[in-house]
Amino acid sequence: RRQITIVTPYFVPDESLLMAMANAARRGVEVTLILARKIDSKMARYAGQSVFEELLESGVKIVRFQGGMLHTKAILIDDSISFVGTVNMDMRSFYLNLEVTLAIYDADFHHRMSQIISGYVEKSEPVSLDRWQERTKITRFKENVLRLAAPLL
Predict the structure, then answer these.
(1) Full-prediction pTM beyond 0.90?
(2) What is the DSSP code string of 101-141?
(3) Tens of pLDDT along 9-19?
(4) Kind and range of the H or E element at 81?
């Protein structure tokens, strides 16, 4: 209803996840996506980046962690719902890999997770729509081509 924070190293959403995030932001939910600046798969990075502009235009805040590889996989919702596990925000994790996620309905746990994630945000650089739109044509080309391969990544 108020806030969704997603932390994931690999972000390659399908259309339903993309639409859900954008629609939540449009209806006033504060949606924040925390991603690693560097990941070990350039293909997954470019495929995920292909949707940044749409998310930013809808009001989703995107920050990129600058402190190395961020391997946390967590979702925080409002003030008491937390999800922590092995699932990345990509179709491979959702449908192919044997992943697990723990759903925790506890305000104290949520508060402690929020503090950890706030530390990530402090070490992150926000992605602005204006700056994002300035990326090169070759980068856009890579993103678009790899978006086509997203279901395989």
Answers:
(1) no
(2) EEEEE-HHHHHHHHHHHHHHHHTEEEEPHHHHTTS-HHHHH
(3) 888 888 888 99
(4) strand 81-85
